[in-house]
Write a structure and sequence with these properties.
- The chain is an alpha/beta fold and 222 residues long.
- It is built from 8 helices and 8 strands, in the order βαβαααβαβαβββαβα.
- The protein is globular.
- The relative contact order is 0.18.
Length: 222
């Protein structure tokens, strides 16, 4: 019997993980699972692990790896994951990766591929730091790549209120990228040693990145 595929997407903020995960869901029937979504769903459903997580979060603590893994194990047993899952944001450390391997071994599954969406840090700062949105309708713009036809006026709704996220400042973005690399290098090395790591240049067009990801998924789940 073919076991549901398990794909891990690695990449810093702005690398396009969310966009690519949604496209993989549509194409292959994979289900995107993020730690935050898993926790919220488990708490809302009132599962045993969800109740544990709620107690920890209510007390202002950090949910342990054991609880997250218990929630993930429950989620992997649900019918909609029959084709497989995309893990986004978990694991974050080699300790979590080792624990995940043990969990999957219990269900006869394994990591089919860990895909690193690689970026150029300097260009990524330019991409993210230039973003802003219309305060009226939420339409997205960029200082370099997508400016309104009339400066300061939304093409879509005509609003003159434009909003920039505080964490999209160049300095903040640079710090987030540095933190990501420091945290993820050991994880990338872990999957590289296992022979599961695949790399994609995420600075290309969305369609090209999707094409390369599709090829990896087809090969790894065959």
């Amino acid at each position: 019997m073919t076991r549901p595929a398990v794909l891990i997407l690695l990449g810093p903020p702005g690398a396009g993980k969310g966009t690519q995960a949604r496209m993989l869901q549509d194409r292959f029937g994979l289900v995107q699972l993020s730690t935050g979504d898993l926790l919220r769903a488990a708490v809302a459903a009132g599962t045993p692990a969800g109740r544990e997580a709620k107690a920890v979060m209510t007390a202002g603590g950090l949910v342990s790896d054991d609880i997250v893994l218990a929630i993930l194990k429950d989620r992997l047993g649900e019918p909609d994951t029959a084709q497989g899952v995309i893990l986004d944001g978990f694991p974050r450390t080699t300790v979590q990766a080792e624990a995940l391997d043990k969990l999957l071994a219990q269900t006869g599954q394994r990591i089919n591929a860990a895909v690193s969406l690689d970026v150029d840090d300097a260009e990524m700062v330019n991409r993210i730091a230039g973003r802003y949105t219309c305060g009226g309708c939420g339409e997205g713009y960029h200082d370099r790549f997508k400016t309104p036809a009339v400066a300061g006026v939304c093409d879509k709704c005509g609003s003159t209120t434009m909003v920039r996220r505080a964490d999209d400042k160049a300095e903040t973005v640079g710090q987030r990228l540095a933190a990501y690399h420091a945290q993820t290098v050991p994880l990338i090395q872990y999957y590289e040693k296992q022979g599961n790591l695949q790399r994609i240049d995420a600075m290309g067009e969305i369609a090209q990145v999707a094409k390369e990801l599709n090829a990896i998924v087809k090969q790894s789940v065959a």
